[in-house]
Amino acid sequence: MMKELRYTLLSDGSSDRALIPLLTWLLQELLADYAIQSEWADLGRLRNRPKNLVGRIKTTLDLYPCDLLFIHRDAEREPRNRRVDEIGNAIEEVVKSVDVPPFVCVVPVRMLEAWLLFDEAALRRASGNPSGKNPLQLPNISKLEAEADPKEVLFQILRQASGLPSRRQQKLPVHQLVHRVAELIDDFSPLRCLPAFIAMETEIQNVIKEYGWL
To answer: What does pLDDT average to over the chain?
Structure first.
């Protein structure tokens, strides 16, 4: 019987649930003998949503119990290590009153959208124009973490890929299409050249070894 691993993603916002396909892909790569089950912690629906990270972690563990907890923070303009320290400090507080499963920090540099800017086919399909031939100005993958505003870059590429006239491009629901791009990417391995992605995968590997999941 196949073993099962349940993970929960606690993210900065609702758009960041687009990380789910990426995290599931990584776990399937590293734990081929496991059935991977994912949950996104939808705290925005709560009437009394906790405002600080400690409260958000506690609420997530109460409502979405799991074997592995992913805690996401965009680095934005901060160094990745600072966000990792913030998460670590919050966990130190949480463990004083709650049992905490293994956890992994998910800290894209600068934000999630940087990790979706490499698969031209997925971008074209998500835009609704899979056979489009117009050139797309995709950033060099090795320099994705240097993009000042990857979210706006992704939105602009989706508009270009749609092949629509300029006026209709502005009506394209690009915020919603971010999730579609993530779902359409079959292989995230090209991101293994990025330091933030490497750090996250290494952290996952260390957790797998520590808890004997192999």
So the answer is: 95
The confidence score (pLDDT) of residue 123 equals 98
**What would the pLDDT profile of 60-88 be if each residue is shown by its tens digit?**
999 999 999 999 999 988 899 999 999 99
| Domains identified in the chain and CATH numbers | 3-109+194-210 (3.40.50), 113-184 (no CATH)
d(Cα 19, Cα 199) in Å, to the nearest integer? 16
Q: Exposed, middle or buried: residue 132 (CB in 10 Å: 0-12, 13-18, 19+)?
A: middle
Rg (CA), the chain: 18
Confidence check: pLDDT of 191 > 90: yes
DSSP state of 5: E
Q: List CB contacts of 202: < 8 A, sequence separation 6 or more.
A: none
Q: What is the DSSP string of 43-101?
A: GGG-TT---SHHHHHHHHHHHS--SEEEEE---TTS-HHHHHHHHHHHHHHHTTTS---
